[in-house]
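Per your request, structure below.
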C-alpha cells in the first residue's frame, strides 16, 4: 500500500504539467457543481417542507379532535370539555399544548363591503407561541377576561380586501335556523386587535380569530362545551405517536385526525417536492460520474508507459488500479470541498438576503426558504465519494488489459 500511495502522490504532483491537467480541472468542476446543486436542492426542499408545515401546524396543531358528523359544514358540533384531557400537556412528555376551539360560519361587514368568513373561536389556552410569529400588525388579544373579548384577529388578505386596519371595527353577522325552521340573524361588533399572514391562502382568505365564548353564546352552548381540541406535539417526529395515543384513549364517538389527514392536499404537494429532490440528486450524480469515468480513462491512456513499466517491475493489476483510484479519489475530494463551499455559500446568501423571491399565492412563501441540515450534507458527500469510486472500478479494469511488452514496445 505504501508503494501505491507513493506512486499516486508523484502522479498527482505532475498532473498540472501533463496533458490531462485540463481534464482534471473539468472533472473537479463537474464534481463541485454537481454537489453544490445537490446541497442547494436539498436545503430548499427541506426549507419548503419545514416552513410550510410550521405554518399549518401553527394554525391547526398536530392532532385534531372533533365530534363525528355526517354533515359538510364549517359549524362544529358541541362536545364536552374534558379537564383531564386538557391536562395532558403537563402530564405527557410528548405533548406541548392542548387547546380548545369552535368554528362558525358568518359574514364580515363594513359600511361598504361584505365577505363570508369562518370565525374560529379560541380560549385562554390558545397556543399563541406557535401563531404569534405570523402576526404582521397589532397583537393577539387576551381571551382570559371575565367577559368575552371584544377583539378579533383578521388575516392580511381579508383586511386588504375590506380596507380594514388595526383599531378599526367591523360587524360579524350569523344566520341560524331554529327548531321551527325560521332563520334568525345575530351579530357581534368586534374591534380588530391584530392582523396575521401565514401565506396559506386557503386559510388566510377565510379565517377570523375571536373569543370562543362568542361562539358558545351564538350556538346556545354551555360554558363546558367546545367544538374540538387541537394538540401540539413537542417535535414533528412525534406527531404520529401522539396521534396513535390520542386515538386509543379518546371517546369512540370523537373523530381523531392527524394534520396530515386534515389537510392532505398541501402535504401531498410537499411530498412531490421530495421526489423532485431525488430526481435532481440522481441527475447530478450521473453528470459527475460521466465526467469522472471519462477523466479516469484519459488518465489511464495517458500513462500506458508508466503502467507497462510498473508491471514489468512486478506490480500486479490490483496495485496499478489502486494508483489511479487514489488519484481519482483525490480529484473527487477536492471537487467536493469546492462544491461544499459553493453550495453552502449560496444557501447562506439566500438565508441572509432572500435573493430568490417567489409569488406567495402559488408557493405559500414570498422568499425561497432554506434549511441547512449538516447531517444531510455529510451523507451527500459520503454518497458522492462512495458511488463515484464504485463506478470508477469499471474503467480502472482497463489496466488489466494493458500488457507490459506491448506498452513498452510502442512507447
Amino acid at each position: 500500500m505504501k508503494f501505491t500511495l507513493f506512486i499516486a502522490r508523484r502522479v498527482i504532483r505532475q498532473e498540472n504539467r501533463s496533458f490531462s491537467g485540463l481534464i482534471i480541472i473539468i472533472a473537479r468542476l463537474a464534481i463541485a457543481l454537481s454537489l453544490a446543486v445537490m446541497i442547494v436542492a436539498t436545503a430548499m426542499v427541506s426549507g419548503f417542507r419545514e416552513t410550510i408545515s410550521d405554518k399549518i401546524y401553527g394554525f391547526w396543531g398536530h392532532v385534531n379532535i372533533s365530534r363525528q358528523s355526517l354533515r359538510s359544514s364549517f359549524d362544529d358540533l358541541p362536545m364536552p370539555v374534558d379537564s383531564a384531557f386538557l391536562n395532558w400537556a403537563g402530564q405527557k412528555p410528548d405533548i406541548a399544548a392542548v387547546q380548545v376551539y369552535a368554528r362558525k360560519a358568518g359574514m364580515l361587514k363594513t359600511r361598504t363591503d361584505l365577505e363570508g368568513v369562518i370565525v374560529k373561536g379560541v380560549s385562554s389556552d390558545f397556543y399563541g407561541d406557535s401563531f404569534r410569529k405570523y402576526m404582521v400588525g397589532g397583537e393577539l388579544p387576551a381571551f382570559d377576561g371575565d367577559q368575552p373579548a371584544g377583539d378579533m384577529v383578521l388575516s392580511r388578505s381579508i383586511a386588504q380586501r375590506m380596507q380594514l386596519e388595526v383599531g378599526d371595527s367591523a360587524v360579524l353577522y350569523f344566520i341560524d335556523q331554529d327548531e321551527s325552521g325560521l332563520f334568525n340573524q345575530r351579530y357581534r361588533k368586534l374591534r380588530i386587535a391584530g392582523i396575521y399572514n401565514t401565506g396559506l391562502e386557503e386559510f388566510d382568505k377565510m379565517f377570523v380569530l375571536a373569543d370562543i365564548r362568542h361562539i358558545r353564546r351564538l350556538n346556545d352552548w354551555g360554558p363546558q362545551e367546545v367544538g374540538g381540541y387541537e394538540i401540539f406535539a413537542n417535535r414533528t417526529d412525534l406527531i404520529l405517536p401522539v396521534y396513535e395515543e390520542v386515538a386509543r384513549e379518546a371517546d369512540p364517538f370523537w373523530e381523531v385526525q392527524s394534520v396530515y389527514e386534515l389537510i392532505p392536499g398541501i402535504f401531498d404537494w410537499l411530498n412531490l417536492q421530495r421526489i423532485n429532490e431525488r430526481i435532481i440528486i440522481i441527475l447530478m450524480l450521473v453528470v459527475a460520474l460521466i465526467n469522472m469515468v471519462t477523466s479516469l480513462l484519459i488518465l489511464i491512456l495517458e500513462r500506458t508507459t508508466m503502467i507497462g513499466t510498473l508491471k514489468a517491475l512486478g506490480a500486479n493489476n490490483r496495485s496499478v488500479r489502486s494508483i489511479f483510484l487514489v488519484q481519482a479519489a483525490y480529484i473527487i475530494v477536492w471537487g467536493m470541498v469546492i462544491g461544499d463551499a459553493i453550495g453552502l455559500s449560496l444557501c447562506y446568501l439566500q438565508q441572509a438576503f432572500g435573493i430568490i423571491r417567489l409569488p406567495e399565492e402559488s408557493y405559500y412563501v414570498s422568499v425561497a426558504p432554506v434549511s441547512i441540515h449538516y447531517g444531510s450534507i455529510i451523507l451527500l458527500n459520503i454518497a458522492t465519494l462512495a458511488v463515484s469510486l464504485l463506478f470508477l472500478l469499471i474503467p480502472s479494469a482497463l489496466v488489466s488489459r494493458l500488457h507490459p511488452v506491448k506498452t513498452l514496445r510502442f512507447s
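Residues 146 and 213 are 10 Å apart (CA to CA).

Regards,
D.
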